Amino acid sequence: MNTKPIIPVFFTIDESYAPWLSVALLTMKENASKTYQYDVHVVYHEMSEDAISRLSAIADDDFSIQFTPMPETLSQIGEWKSANKLRADYFTLTIFIRLFLPDLFPQYDKAIYLDSDICVPGDISKMYEIDLGDNYLGVINDYSIAGVPDLVRYVEDAIGVDHTRYFNSGILLMNFREMREHHLTERFLDLMARYHFDTIAPDQDYLNAMCKDKVVYLDRVWDSMPCELPEFADPQIIHYNLFDKPWCYDNVKYEKYFWDAARRSNFYDEIVEYKNSYSSEQKEKDKESQMALVMNANKILDEPVTMKTVFESGQEARL
Fold this sequence. Notes:
Blueprint: E1 6-14, H1 18-31, E2 37-45, H2 49-56, E3 63-69, H3 70-74, H4 78-82, H5 90-95, H6 97-104, E4 111-114, E5 118-119, H7 124-128, E6 137-139, H8 149-159, E7 171-174, H9 176-181, H10 184-195, H11 202-210, E8 215-217, E9 238-239, H12 255-262, H13 268-277, H14 280-301, H15 307-312
Parallel strand pairs: 1-2, 1-4, 2-3, 6-8
Antiparallel strand pairs: 4-7, 5-9, 6-7
Helix pairs in contact: 1-2, 8-14
């Protein structure tokens, strides 16, 4: 029986993200302190037995990987739905799954949530050991918006958060205990049912608005993004956020970390094939998606009811 202290780590993916998750898991396992047991939970939507089997092969005695189907997970939210606290379909719930984790996994008081488009060259236990006090989250500023004036305006005038304090929800140290005690999940469901806010980054914007001033800002090396200048010499987690992905484009910052690990992945052939087949049409769609993001941000700014107006008017209290 393993008696080491446990660090829970969560990912949410579907089949298409399995190759990138393999790189995330490999690098996290290889660089993590051996003084802990790592319980990795992969909450998934539609994934083949083959993908699950190949990802499971990364596990060892100190690094367990458990797979939970998203429909099974979301069925536990049925009580809230039947109480009319939520008027949303299944697809909507899957977008916000990380907000439900504290209630869905009550055995944990603290956990790490990670997006799957990452490499982990650092020791993930060092992040887990950071004291959150009575704050809800440990977060890292999202500097991907800093050079886009329209997105800066969106964050400050629609979400109501100073853009230098706006955080990315792809890398989170989560205080499950405090989030449960202050009913974050139910507060979120109430807000969404009442207002149906339009957002450009749904769960990220809700977390920023609801948890404002109840977060601990971590060193930026825990969410190192290719869009940032300069490149960090010692990135602890590399987050290939938005369109800066080495499996799509050449000359992406920190790409060496990804490809060094990808070569050891049993998804390597698929990763190479994906990169080689990423077409000019797909790259053009990426550009269109970037423009659409900015256009939607400007549209939301023109709406009379936004997160900022609701919270700053006193209609709703932050957590």
